[in-house]
Amino acid sequence: MLPPFIIDQIRKREEAERRRDAEQPRLEIPVGYPAPPAPRRDDVDDVDRGVVVIEL
User: Fold this and answer.
1) Over the stretch 19-48, which tens digit does the pLDDT of each residue have?
2) 3-state SS record for the chain
3) What is the pLDDT at residue 11?
């Protein structure tokens, strides 16, 4: 078992981290919205333009 002062230090660090996280601005991810429809094969260009799309 850890000495009480070490437990107190751990709690203080966790509380400080929670306060710091609470101060950070957050961006909410829209959940529940339908995904855009997939493009039909007719709409897709076969030209390689060197663009990479990353979906989050």
Assistant:
1) 888 888 878 887 777 777 776 766 555 566
2) CCCHHHHHHHHHHHHHHHHHHHHCCCCCCCCCCCCCCCCCCCCCCCCCCCCCCCCC
3) 95
- Per the listing, tokens 């000495």 go with 3
What's the rounded Cα separation, in Å, for the pair 41 and 49? 17
For Cα atoms 11, 12, 14, give the angle at the middle one, nearest 5 degrees.
65
User: Residue 56: what pLDDT?
Assistant: 83
User: In Å, what is the CA distance from 43 to each residue of 30, 35, 39, 46, 47?
Assistant: 27, 18, 6, 10, 12
